[in-house]
Amino acid sequence: MTYTQTTPDHDAADRADDGEDVARVLQPDGSRVPDAVLDPWIADLSPHELRALHCDMVLTRRVDAEGVALQRQGQLALWAPCRGQEAVQIGTAHALATGDFVFPSYREHGVLLARGAQPADFVLAWRGEEHSAFDHTAINTAPPQIIIGAQSLHATGWAMGAQRDGSSDVAIAYFGDGATSQGDVNEAMVFASSFRAPVVFVCSNNQWAISEPVTVQAKFPIAGRAPGFGIPSLRIDGNDVLACVAAMRWALDRARRGEGPAFLEAVTYRMGPHTTSDDPRRYRTAEEVEHWAGRDPISRFEAYLCAEGVLDDSGLAEVAAAADALAGQVRAACIGATTRAAETIFDHVYAEPHAPLAAQRAAYVDYLSGFVAEDAR
Question: Could you tell me which of 38, 49, 135 has the C-alpha nearest to residue 94?
């Protein structure tokens, strides 16, 4: 199941990726299409599991919208929106076992939710509060990585450790298309391939690395790089949640059988800005955004579920109410958060009194007092 590069077409490589050259089982309108590779991996999904996928996608989008609103209102310092990427995050995360360990980037809010992190807690990380986020040992999920691509090395190292422990657990590294230009990702794939480490690399190709289009940094599909490292890959429709479940199940199965790493390129789209400090209107067109809006992962899956009789109006209303309730919890936790005094960063550096640190604290307090005096004028 290795990705095979077709005859080079440089003109095509310079055009925007429209998401058509991918493996999928759901068309943008929600109609089901057969795929010989993906179908066997999702044949056992029950109506309950399908509804759970849908619910988590809707919850993710609602939490994401609340994060953006809270940042605009000055409650958060920053937020990295994930609207449009719910299918790849929830689909792949739902395929994982409890013992698998996830190494996410800063945009995988849906992965955190699906792994059991409470949004009312991890949203506070974007406010800089103490003890925000989650207990990574309780849900086998590392804190979201801000340094682009660094988590791929962490995932590979963890996988090599699990391999030596004789464990069947797998590490998963999530990153964007921009991260594939970083040395860390490529170095991680060298080690993973050489040592047949049980790790799955999930690249969410959302078309834009901040303002850099994927067609500039990758003249051909990103999935084509992995086989050069000896790693099989799949290029899937990242807006098709069923395709994402299937691809991850395939990758996990081979890793658990000792066959080593796999690489998934999920072709999707970042509907919002890179972060709330970004203005995407400066580098992409309204027509491009409208094109991808027609491939929305949630409306696509809802159309399929309703056509199959798995979901109806009452079910949709129930999920919407749950999303509103969750957003309310996030807002209450954020607005009710108490930010500690800045000088308390020195409180627990050492277990015993430490004279040089006390001097630093005193100097810092004196520095902060200058701002108070300035504000009083």
Answer: 49
Cβ-Cβ contacts under 8 Å for 196 (sequence gap 6 or more)? 163, 258, 259, 260, 261
Helix (H, G, I), strand (E, B) or coil at 101: strand
> Please, what sign has the CA dihedral across residues 9, 12, 17, 20?
negative
User: Which pTM value belongs to this model?
Assistant: 0.92
Residue type, 185: V
Given 72, 164, 281, 283, which residue is catalytic? 283
Is residue 66 a contact partner of residue 329, using CB atoms and an 8 Å limit? no
* Per-residue confidence (pLDDT) for residue 131, from 0 to 100: 78
- Cα–Cα nearest to 3, from 220, 260, 149: 220
Cα maximum dimension of the chain: 72
Question: CA distances (Å), 14 to each of 180, 188, 210, 215, 221, in order?
Answer: 18, 28, 18, 6, 11
User: What Å distances lie between residue 328 and 61, 66, 82, 298, 318, CA to CA?
Assistant: 14, 9, 19, 21, 15
**270 a catalytic residue:** yes
HSE (CB half, 13 Å, CA atoms) of 3?
27
* 174 flagged as catalytic: no
257 given a catalytic annotation? no
Flag residues of the chain having pLDDT under 50.
2-15
